[in-house]
Amino acid sequence: MRNENSAVKTEEANLIVGCDGIHSNVRKQVTAVSKNEESLPRWTGITMLRGLTRMKHYLDGRTMLIIGPIHNEMVIYPISKEVEDQDTGEALVNWVALMRTANDKDDRVMPEKWNNEVRDIEKAMEPFKNFKYDYIDVPEMIRSAEKVYQYPC
């Protein structure tokens, strides 16, 4: 670590947390095999869709849902008050859809951007078309999002 005087300073710690993104400098320093080799992030073959939907609350309005098997999984939870809008009974709900779109050994590269907007919602949400329950209609929730983004896991 360099300070204002460009001198090297060493610190000891039991834990380090790096929250500096996909091309983390912290990860590079901690996981590098040698000074000439980096440990690069690898795509797991899981593609994630993400969106925010204003909708009628489901169940008690405070419940987090995890629906489906690991290769087609939805994580859904409200991020506003139980019922934010008293007139409509709607709340803002965050959701992430995880789906296997490639083998984890696949060398194809998926854009490493979290803001890659999905153009064909119907095609993207195909694995979740049957996720309809008495308390939540997942396909309708996805269709009702203002924008849907796609990114690699």
Give, in spatial order, the strands making up the sheet with the most strands.
2-3-4-1-6-5
Provide the succession of SSEs.
Answer: HEEEEEHHE
The CATH architecture of the domain at 46-152 would be 2-Layer Sandwich
Please indicate the percent range of residues in DSSP E strands (runs of 2 or more). Answer: 25-35%
The CATH class label of the domain at 46-152 is Alpha Beta
Class from helix and strand fractions:
alpha+beta
How much is the average pLDDT? Answer: 82
Oligomer: single chain
Briefly note the CATH topology name of the domain at 46-152: D-Amino Acid Oxidase, Chain A, domain 2
Give the helix tally.
Answer: 3
How far is it from the N-terminal to the C-terminal residue, by CA?
A: 29 Å
Number of beta strands: 6
The global form is globular
Which regions contain 5 or more consecutive residues with pLDDT less than 50?
Answer: none
